[in-house]
Amino acid sequence: MKKICFDIGGSSIKVITFDENNKIILKEKIDHVGAKDNSVDGKGVSETSDATKNLKMLKRIPLIKCLENIANYITQMGEEVKVGITIPGVVDSKNYKVLSKSAISDIDEDILGFFKKQKLVKQILIENDARAAAIGEMVYGQNKKITNALILTIGSGIGGGIIINKKVYKGSHLTSGEFGKTMANISDHGSLYPNLSVGFLSTTAMCYRYTIAAGSEKLINGHELMQLVEQKEPIATQLFDNWIKTLTRFLINVSILDPDKILIGGGISANETFMNALKNEVNNLDYSSIMKFNVEACKLSNDAACYGMLALIEKEYIEE
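The structure corresponding to this sequence follows.
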């Protein structure tokens, strides 16, 4: 039986279909339908500052729209399948519940009940996207050769998976690895929201900053941002340099867990310019006062989360 793994992101849904031998048959993306205007710290985008007026850049997608798009995709396949879905935010995989908003809104949905009505779905599993990426990278990307590791996924937000003794650590409240919710500036005692790491480290945050700085009315994507960096466009280059330096200092903080490796995932990890700049910044740190750590790109790059769901479906990784 084929396995279809869906990785729900802020801009689209990544789909990988695996055959009976776990070989990739097809990789593609599903565009989101039914996105809603987002808000920033309780305000609409047009209210946040003069610079953002007339910009409709930030979107949230209702969970039910994602589920419907996935169900329609499966129906079009026309055959029985096993399904794995990764979702950003806090996810209770055992009870099929999403517990926190992210790029996905209106999260109070009966996911298991929804898919029980889909006759072609013979098995359904869900998991947090970054945690699934950690599982996929550990099992298939690293061939189970890592014992302790951090997987940092950089995309619409900032997520992570923490591997301890070959097991993905979930925490007491299923919130482990929510690196985007850490404080980027601990000395600012004002509003918490502007100082969250997600606003300084995510690819979407960088694209947003570039769009504002350039005075554009259209939000660029990560691929377009890196093209501008490689073309040495001044605004993009300055933002990129600051991004790499800020991300490196964040990695210093999380390195206290003493992992074998810190692995970078998400779409940006496939960009050589990005990874080379990050590695160079990390290698040039003064390690006389901090602990040395290794940083690499995930071998599975942006496919890691889908592979994580495959590992769960195939019981290549079993939660205790």
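Residues 234-254 form the longest helix (21 residues).
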